[in-house]
Specification:
The protein is mostly beta strands. The protein has a single domain, classed as OB fold (Dihydrolipoamide Acetyltransferase, E2P). Helices cover about 5% and strands about 45% of the residues. A five-stranded mixed beta barrel has the order 1-3-4-6-5. β5 and β6 form a beta hairpin. It is extended and about 65 Å long.
């Protein structure tokens, strides 16, 4: 059995770009930056940033382009794919994550001042239909019957 699975959580480095393929399928491309903090041999704290190219197709791509923008947090699950093409006689390569699922991170600039997660308040893009309406108010733990 072979496994090709990628999971990244980070912030968008640019606004998503939505285009249509000749077949009419929508494709959205964006990139996400992830940070890693570690201690080097001398015990000094180091930070490393990696950049990941992401593509999302169809309804999911449209949803990403509609709700996300530069700086937004997102969790992406998908598979790694490398494409190649010829440009000016040179072979070009691009490795990207083809998104199976995109969840939105916390909203920035919300008026409530809390740390709302739009993963539950906005569609994930892979639902295939209308997303359910979630209540805007916070849930009171005393209202839960168990």
């Amino acid at each position: 059995m072979y496994i090709n699975k990628a999971m990244v959580y980070g912030n968008l480095t640019r606004d998503p770009e939505l285009r249509a393929l000749p077949s009419g399928t929508q494709v959205c491309s964006f990139s996400i930056a992830t940070n890693r903090v570690y201690n080097d041999r001398d015990g000094k704290k180091q930070e490393q940033t990696d950049y990941h190219n992401i593509v999302a197709f169809g309804k999911q791509g449209e949803t990403v382009a509609k709700y996300l923008k530069k700086g937004s947090g997102a969790f992406v699950e998908g598979r790694i794919q490398t494409r190649s093409w010829e440009k000016d006689g040179q072979k070009q390569y691009r490795t990207e994550i083809v998104a199976d699922r995109v969840q939105f991170g916390p909203r920035s600039g919300g008026g409530s001042g809390g740390s709302e997660s739009s993963a539950g308040n906005a569609p994930e893009g892979n639902t295939g239909g209308d997303a359910p309406a979630y209540p805007e108010e916070d849930i009171n733990p005393e209202d839960i019957p168990f």
